[in-house]
Amino acid sequence: MTYFDQDLTSLHADLVAKKLTAVDLAKTTFVNMKQVDPELGAFLALNEDAALKRAAEIDAKGIDPDNVLAGIPVAVKDNIVTKGLTTTAASKMLEHFVPVYDATVVEKLYASDAVIVGKNNMDEFAMGGSTENSALKLTHNPWDVSRVPGGSSGGSAVAVASGQVPVAFGSDTGGSIRQPAAFNGVVGMKPTYGRVSRWGLIAFASSLDQIGPLTRTVKDNAAALNVIAGYDQHDGTASKRAVPDFTAGLDGDIKGMKIGLPKEYMDEGIDPKVRAVIKDAVKKFEELGATVEEVSLPHSRYGVSAYYIIASSEASSNLQRFDGIRYGFRAEDVKNLEDVYVRSRSEGFGDEVKRRIMLGTFSLSAGYYDAYFHKAGQVRTLIIDDFKRVFDKYDMIMGPVTPTPAFKIGDEISDPITMYMNDVLTIPVNLAGLPGMSVPAGFADGLPVGLQLIGKRFDESTLYKAGYAFEQATDFHNQTPKVGGAN
Ligand SMILES: NC(=O)C[C@H](N)C(=O)O
Fold first, then answer.
1. What is the pLDDT, as a whole number, of residue 63?
2. Is this model's pTM higher than 0.90 or not?
3. Is the pLDDT of residue 442 over 70?
4. 77 noted as active-site residue
5. 374 inside domain
């Protein structure tokens, strides 16, 4: 059995009606994972004993009908710390690291009686767009196992797409939730910066990182964001703003909604097959009563360059803590303190992480700071202003998530610039701190294509409403991949 014929809402209804127990669900989940995952590699660690114990406790106290995640198996990306359960960030540096506390998101999941069944593979320290940068294993796309699942939250997207769990939680710094969601045909939300606490998320680029849910349907996604959103005193950038119920008003109509379609998101750089899918989506929105007009985000083309300066600079600082002394990997047979630092970091980090640390250290160094880091900050402001101008007139922006569908494993890994360009359409959203969501919008040669919906700050609700209307009018979310799913 997989969950493919059941979304979160119907699983929850079965649990409340006692047609199913949390223990049944957890047991089935592990049986299924052990059958499906060896071919896909979505999980780095299973949490079987603790999950079954937890499920039994939840059954004993009863399923709370108001709590949609109660008794539901969920998966968490391996850069979100889980007390007592290894959290590796897919790095040799943290391969055996067992955290002593839970991330705020994990605490909230426990408080809502969710059952954490395992930790998902990812690009090392969330740096990458294919999950090939994991130091620990390769993850395959369930629609075509010769292809990448995207990244860096590749394991989380595959876990959902292949029906192993109905909900997984990833993180997105430049596209890491939306791009793998698009490549795997699932819904992925990168919330507004500040909407979800980053406490306990292993920091990559702190001014960009956000945790968000990946699910099969828009409604499930809204329900999952309800659980993890909100203020947290441990994260100075977590917003105190009230969190609305994201599932409320989902089925309101979208007549009169004004949507901008950036011309830069539909130019020659985008695969014609992807463009064709997005054009069909535009028609669908028009049929639903929205108006879609061409707009311009002229500085978005500089987003990738600015991102690789800003994100790498922040990473070079954040990753200083991995010094071979405090925690994590330490090289053997070291001669002196200098040797501990140099060899532990040289042997513990993979190539992409080292590339970014060097890039970041360079752009922050005296003499280069103005030319690089400062300039990148100015570009960021221009990108923020582009979005502001469009949002003066429009309720939402839409376009593709990625320029192409999932590529072959091995095709881009030796060409960092090509790999970085995967996020050309997602990065500006992180730089501006806006919410962005990927919704299944069709197929190109049998591979899923994602539609990106971008909203005003803290206006995830509009994205969910629009995404839900689109989903109800289409059937893409009901298609299942070759591996896992209904097969
Ligand atoms: N972390 C992300 O959001 C993905 C982006 N591809 C990066 O490598 O930085």
1. 97
2. yes
3. yes
4. yes
5. no
